[in-house]
From TrEMBL:
The keyword Acyltransferase applies. This is N-acetyltransferase. The keyword Transferase applies. PROSITE patterns: GNAT.
Amino acid sequence: MPQLQPQPQPQLLRPDHAPALLAFERANRAYFAASIPDRGEDYFARFDERHRELLAEQATGACFFHVLVDAAGEVLGRVNLVDVADGSAELGYRIAERAAGRGLATSAVREVCALAAGTYGLTSLRAATTLDNAASRAVLARAGFTVTGETRLSGHPGLRYLKSV
């Protein structure tokens, strides 16, 4: 019987994550594009520059980017806190297709919520997802987010969420 591997814990984005993060984004591009807007060719063409920009932005405290890295060094997901201001931030996440459906998103979102309160000093988190993304809606509900209203995301109807942390 195969041994179960522990869920990877969120790691704050570092310079050395770049190759594995790029591989994650490339490998899952079509999968992600089925439920969220595609990042576009420029994202991949300028990946190294963009990675440096994210790290510089993170250094200011305006955001906290996390990656979920397995024992082999492969990125299985990301959970980000952006637009940090006044004790609040916007949460966003994406999980690799091969890691979906195993509770990784829920555990990672919960862990980042704990980091938001305990490490980053935040008091609330916002999130949003489209109505047709049932998996994302379920993750947010399991992580304790509540619906606060309707929104549109890239032209698609969606819901806004809030969580006190």
